[in-house]
Write a structure and sequence with these properties.
four-stranded antiparallel beta sheet; alpha+beta; six-stranded mixed beta sheet
Length: about 700
């Protein structure tokens, strides 16, 4: 069957948008092909810096014939109605059938359409795909009336080996393409997909991004191994560089020894951010004085001039970095604090100086909570609180340094180096470096008490602030990374097993914000909203670890805000429900809760309190009441001791009595005293279970 090839040859497409563009282009094509009544066994898109390519295999030569049946007016209807039907269906009366439907005889028209040739459909279809493709940023250019990410040089479009003309204004459409800009200039004609692939390969273009990535990765390893080094793992940079070259050639350069005195993070960031160089490590894992660059050319001299040019550029970059390093160390971090008053944290949320002040106070409060978790804490609670105050005070100071101004990625990290150079305590300097962590699910989570205190304080302060002014995440939009901040709080608490009240920590943060803004008009509303927000984030976090979201909701509904205790409850609940007793008791709970809920709604009352023992007249209800008398204190004691598995075991002891009750007892009897007493007994079952978790939220 015929194949379709479309190549859009452009000026360089930014690497960061290439993958998304290829995915969107493929999705739009598939949607429009399906809408046109066509079917294709395989469709692919490819992207390089200079071209976006679509390949569709086994596309039918014509659309399938279609048949549509329409029912018209009743035979004998007014002529105007019949004429209107015939006109809309495009048939004559002689072409219609008369059928008895059981409700009368009606005209029926069978409309048969012959499928159009695919070649006649493609011009408008592909033009629509191109125009519908959305770019983060696009531009106008003289050759076309539509916007594109970069000016389009030409378009190659073939179907079944023949050129498909596209109406793209002044953009040339034909069967011509070209290879690598430097290594294979000049046009060549294309006759098929296989011919296109081979001519590109001959023209020094690797069309498939996966092939380019693998080639770069292998060459990086080989160049590093030649110097008995390893490449510093950097998947993000590898992905970006793959989108910068069509024919990758990896070369190695040297970093001058004088620059190796700079912090390793400064060196790697200078090379990575501006120059897209890969760093190398020695056998001990230290940064080596070598770098790897991925060129998009094959040099006649083996790359000597290219390497020399890159070394010159790197020398200039690192000279700037060394100037920043030397200049910054002339001013102490504490002396930089007044400059934070010139930096706005966010409109309506004051300055970075205000944030630093809150951060210092909140970190001190959280340090007290952490100290309670660690009775053997080195130096004790007072020392931890004192150091937390100092680290919180200095955490944002490096924002006004020249190095962070040039490399924002180094905030916190440079603060640590400057703090160490000034003789600050090692744990204080470390806390400054780690207070932004963890930055994502794969980022390392701080474990040192001081680092944990400052990191928690920073995230909670940010969350409360943005919730105060209503800047909450909506849908997929989260411009201030508040979901990431909440996940960071969850990880800091759970991975360090901190026993603390999330509500109280938020309340402390809110009080500092109220002092900072000079207003207490917010009440507890931001905290209420944040607790719900944390509940959703916790579901996502634990779901990724195989925990059911409904079990989390069942425990969170109790108002449980000690996340460590909450996860232990959830684990015990999951284990309990996995047993036969647990599954059966869940069914029994639902039956009891449903009966009570229906009757409470109908009667307009709540059936609480103890049932009257004198009105328990049947053995099964007497046995159930007696067993509840035994189980309730067992549940209470187990919950007090945080023995959640023990609480579940105690509930399991109710199974036989509950089963017997529902087998032998009728709840809604005519005798109202007996009915109400039995409803109270069922309500007691519901309330006992709900002390362990809100079982009504459990699914399945």
């Amino acid at each position: 069957m015929p194949e379709l090839l479309l190549e859009i040859l452009t000026e360089e497409i930014p690497a960061r948008v290439q993958t998304r563009a290829a995915e969107d282009f493929l999705r739009l094509t598939r949607e429009k092909i399906a809408a046109a009544g066509l079917d294709a066994s395989k469709s692919q898109t490819f992207v390089t810096p200079r071209r976006l390519v679509l390949v569709v295999e086994d596309l039918p030569a014509t659309q399938a014939d279609t048949s549509e049946e329409r029912r018209g007016p009743r035979v004998g209807s007014l002529q105007n109605a019949i004429d209107g039907f015939l006109k809309s269906a495009g048939v004559t009366l002689a072409q219609c059938e008369q059928r008895d439907t059981g409700k009368g005889v009606f005209y029926f028209a069978v409309i048969r359409r012959t499928g159009a040739a695919t070649a006649s459909i493609l011009p408008e279809l592909l033009r629509a795909v191109m125009l519908d493709l959305s770019w983060p940023k696009s531009m106008r250019f003289p050759a076309a009336t539509f916007r594109w990410v970069r000016p389009i040089d030409s378009v190659l479009c073939l179907f079944d080996g023949k050129t498909v003309p596209l109406d793209l204004g002044g953009v040339v459409t034909g069967n011509m393409s070209e290879g690598h800009r430097f290594l294979s200039p000049g046009l060549f004609a294309v006759s098929s997909v296989a011919d296109y692939r081979q001519r590109l390969r001959d023209g020094h273009v690797m069309l498939d991004a996966t092939d380019r990535k693998q080639a770069i990765s292998l060459a990086l390893y080989e160049r590093a191994a030649e110097a008995q080094l390893t490449v510093r793992d950097d998947p993000g940079l590898l992905e970006e560089v793959t989108g910068l070259v069509e024919w990758p050639v990896v070369m190695a350069g040297t970093i001058e020894p004088a620059f190796m005195e700079l912090p390793s993070e400064v060196l790697t960031t200078s090379m990575r951010t501006h120059l897209k160089y890969f760093s190398c490590l020695d056998r001990d894992g230290r940064l080596a004085p070598r770098f790897l660059v991925v060129a998009n050319n094959i040099a006649d001299d083996g790359g000597k001039e290219i390497v020399a040019g890159n070394e010159r550029v790197l020398r200039a970059r690192l000279a700037d970095a060394r100037f920043f390093w030397d200049t910054d160390r002339k001013i102490k971090l504490e002396a930089r604090l007044p400059k934070l008053a010139e930096r706005i944290f966010y409109q309506g949320l004051g300055t970075m100086a205000d944030k630093a002040d809150r951060l210092s106070q909140l970190a001190t409060e959280i340090a007290y909570q952490i100290a309670r978790n660690k009775p053997d804490l080195l130096g004790g609670e007072l020392a931890l609180r004192r150091n937390a105050k100092r680290a919180g005070q200095l955490a944002k100071a490096d924002l006004s340094s020249a190095m962070v101004g040039e490399f924002p990625e180094l905030q916190g990290i440079m603060g640590r180096y400057y703090a160490e150079a000034e003789g600050e305590r090692g744990d204080v300097a470390h806390a400054i470096a780690e207070h932004y962590s963890p930055l994502g699910p794969s980022d390392r989570c701080p474990t040192e008490p001081l680092s944990v205190a400052v990191a928690l304080a920073d995230k909670l302060d940010t969350l409360i602030g943005f919730f105060i002014i209503g800047e909450k995440p909506t849908g997929s939009k989260d411009p201030f990374a508040l979901r990431r901040a909440a996940l960071g709080v969850i990880r800091l608490i759970l991975e360090n097993e901190l026993r603390m009240s999330l509500y109280q920590a938020m309340k402390g943060a809110l009080a500092l914000w109220q002092d900072s803004l000079g207003s207490s008009r917010f009440g507890d509303q931001p905290i209420v909203e944040l607790l719900d927000f944390f509940g959703e984030r916790l579901k996502v976090h634990l779901r990724d670890r195989g925990v059911r979201h409904d079990l989390i909701a069942a425990v969170f509904a109790l108002g449980e805000d000690d996340l460590v205790r909450l996860t232990r409850r959830v684990a015990a609940l999951a284990a309990f429900l996995a047993t036969e007793d647990g599954a059966n008791l869940l069914t029994a709970y639902r039956r009891a809760a449903n009966i009570v809920g229906i009757e409470e709604k109908r009667d307009g009352v709540t059936y609480g309190g103890m049932p009257d023992a004198t009105k328990l007249i049947i053995a099964e209800e007497t046995a159930l009441a007696g067993r509840l008398d035994q189980v309730e204190p067992m549940v209470t004691k187990a919950l007090e001791q945080e023995d959640f598995a023990g609480a579940m075991t105690a509930l399991a002891g109710l199974r036989s009595q509950i089963d017997a009750f529902f087998t032998e007892i009728t709840v809604n009897v005519r005798n109202q005293e007996l009915r109400i007493n039995r409803l109270k007994l069922l309500a007691r079952i519901r309330d006992t279970f709900d002390r362990v978790a809100d079982f009504s939220r459990i699914e399945g």
